[in-house]
UniProtKB/TrEMBL annotation:
GO terms for cellular component: mitochondrion. It comes from Calycina marina. It holds the Pfam family DUF34_NIF3. This is NIF3 NGG1 interactin-like proteing factor 3-like 1. Transmembrane segments: none annotated.
Length: 325
């Protein structure tokens, strides 16, 4: 009987993503990172990987149509232990369909948040203006700042000495809130709008001029991490009503972009190019374990790393009277 194996390309992708975002960085107290679905290799599957924030039915349809070997989903589609796999549950149906098609699923989640140069550093680059430094067409200037981790990893793996969750930026010269908003909306993919909360004693027409000297940053849902920080601005994906109210009562401001909108631009701007470079390096240096010479030769012939075109935040902002949506 022949041995059942995953696609050789899937094995390469998993190895590459683990080097970029070691699983030991993930918060195992609640998270479920790693290889969540290892599908048997099927003929006709391509040497291609699809990056997404959420693995929905629409994203699964996209991967099946593209014949991708692997899906890297930032949020784990399996978050708690499964007692069965049935067609009665939409997420389980997605997993069964992907397994049938030979498409594996990996989730790095909080390992990406904590990694140096990961998601929270990406958000820090956006609000500081560093993100725009190499864009010759951008008129956005960067602001000098210090950057610190909110919750450091106690025993990080080699090469990840500055790993940890959340970031705090401090500006020696305060930056107006309006400038920070412009950086955020452009850096997160030219968002049409974000949610902003400011202290209620600030008069209309003056809110954009609020001086910000310090920012607490957390991708996704940041209330638990940012709530007690002594900073001028909380920047995250989402806060509850009461978390935002508590912040503005204390004289702080809040910017929320919707949960996954705070994460999605990272895929195209950082994860995709880094994964391509890592895979190319592994192929060139023959660093892929448990592969035959034929498998390695096949990979040397080329592969693709793509970002999902259908992945999006479930919420949209609809203006009063807006039509055509």
């Amino acid at each position: 009987m022949s041995e059942t194996k995953a696609s050789p390309f899937t094995s390469a992708v998993v190895g590459a993503i683990r080097r970029l975002y070691p699983e030991s960085l993930a918060d195992k107290s609640f998270d479920n990172t790693g290889l969540l679905l290892e599908a048997p290799h099927r003929p006709g599957i391509r040497n291609s990987v699809l990056l997404t924030i959420d693995l929905t039915k629409a994203v699964a349809d996209e991967a099946i149509l593209r014949k991708d070997s692997t899906i890297i989903t930032y949020h784990p589609i399996i978050f708690r232990g499964l007692k069965s796999l049935t067609l009665a549950n939409t997420q389980q149906t997605t997993l069964l369909r992907l397994a049938q098609e030979g498409i594996s699923v990996y989730s790095p989640h909080t390992a990406v948040d904590a990694a140096p140069g990961g998601l929270n550093d990406f958000l820090a680059d956006i609000v500081s203006g560093d993100f725009y430094r190499n864009n010759v067409n951008s008129r956005i200037e960067s602001s000098p700042h210090t950057r610190n981790v909110i919750t450091p990893i106690e025993t990080p793996p080699t090469g990840c000495d500055t790993a940890g969750y959340g970031r705090i930026l401090r500006f020696p010269t305060a930056v107006p809130l309006g400038i920070l908003l412009s950086r955020i909306t452009q850096g997160l993919g030219n968002l049409d709008a974000v949610s902003v909360a400011v202290p209620q004693w600030i008069p209309q027409g003056e809110k954009h001029n609020i001086n910000i000297s310090s920012i607490g940053i957390c991708a996704g849902s940041g209330g638990h991490m940012l709530g007690n920080l002594d900073v001028d601005l909380l920047f995250t994906g989402e806060l509850s009503h009461h978390e935002a109210l508590a912040a503005i009562e204390q004289g702080r401001c809040c910017i929320t972009a919707f949960h996954s909108n705070s994460e999605r631009a990272f895929l195209a701007n950082v994860m995709r190019p880094r994964l391509l470079v890592q895979l190319e390096k592994m192929v060139e240096q023959q660093e892929i374990d448990e592969m035959t010479d034929r498998d390695k030769s096949d990979l040397a012939g080329g592969f693709e790393v793509a970002v999902s075109k259908v992945d999006r935040d479930p919420f949209e902002i609809i203006a009063a009277g807006q039509t055509g949506w």
